[in-house]
Design a protein that fits this description.
This is NAD(P)H-binding protein. By secondary structure, the protein is of the alpha/beta class. It has helices spanning about 10-20, 55-60, 75-85, 110-125, 140-145, 165-175, 195-210, 220-230, 245-250, and strands at about 1-5, 25-30, 40-45, 65, 95-100, 130-135, 155, 160, 185, 195, 215. It has a domain at about 1-135 and about 165-190: NAD(P)-binding Rossmann-like Domain (Rossmann fold, 3-Layer(aba) Sandwich). Helix 1 (about 10-20) packs across helix 6.
Length: about 250
């Protein structure tokens, strides 16, 4: 069995690439930029925004883990239009594993809507597939909201709820799906704890022994309401074992 990992230089793709090095699978990786230390893996250039290299990427491949994503630049082209073209090259694929995000069908955020549109494209095609949604990664939440204090304060939308998960655990879960039958829409993969952003900031202050404080702010609108209501969480699917606190502790080691 030969696996293709797309987006091999992105956060999830690079973790998949490293974990698969220790496996017995034959692995092919693709991205716009060649990653370092590929060893015996085959790398192929491809670009979802232009369509270049997609046919070469899927050649002689059985299973694809589609980790390529672009939440900011050319997101519509990469997530939807380019993905649709990519699907047209996959007639021979036995299993396409598509990582998505919990809440893409409920949260009014452009990138989430595009991920949901991609899910619908996949559900309506004939390619055997598994769609598995995850909650946000620990480092994503920290880097986006509580990376640097301003005037000794973490200024955050404190009521936002997150069920952050370890990216490595999610990558392992995706690799575990390779040897299984396609499931269509699979169960969500979520972190062990649901916390408000205020609680996460306070935990970081405690773990790091900081003198900073937390200033909680709120905003009007549906997006703020969605995250405050936890539309990006799933309390019934606490799959990950590494907590946000564990993640912070590991950074100190």
């Amino acid at each position: 069995m030969r696996i293709l990992v797309t987006g091999s230089t992105g956060q999830l793709g690079s973790i998949l690439f490293k974990q698969l090095k220790a496996s017995d699978y034959k692995v092919k990786i693709t991205s716009r930029r060649k990653p370092e230390g590929i060893g015996h893996f085959e790398w192929v250039y491809s670009d979802l925004s232009s369509g270049e290299g997609l046919e070469a990427a899927v050649k002689d491949v059985d299973v694809i883990i589609h980790a390529a994503t672009s939440p900011i630049k050319n997101s519509k082209m990469v997530e939807v239009l380019g993905f649709k073209e990519f699907l047209g090259k996959m007639k021979h694929i036995k299993h396409l594993i598509y990582p998505s995000i919990v809440g893409v069908d409920e949260i009014p955020f452009k990138y989430y809507k595009q991920k949901y549109e991609a899910e619908e494209l996949l559900k309506n095609c004939s390619i055997p597939h598994t769609i598995v949604r995850a909650t946000q990664f620990h480092n994503f939440v920290e880097n986006l909201f509580i990376s640097k204090p301003l005037c000794k304060r973490y200024i955050v939308p404190g009521n936002f709820k997150f069920q952050s998960v370890d990216a490595g655990e999610f990558a392992s879960h995706l690799i575990g799906l390779v040897g299984k039958d396609p499931q269509g829409r699979a169960e969500d993969f979520c972190g062990p704890d649901i916390m408000t952003l205020k609680e996460m900031a306070e935990l970081k202050i405690k773990k790091n022994n900081e003198s900073n404080k937390v200033l909680s702010i709120s905003f009007p609108g549906k997006l703020y309401k969605s995250f405050s209501e936890g539309k990006n969480t799933n309390s019934l699917r606490k799959m990950g074992e590494i907590t946000f606190g564990d993640y912070l502790s590991n950074k100190l080691e």
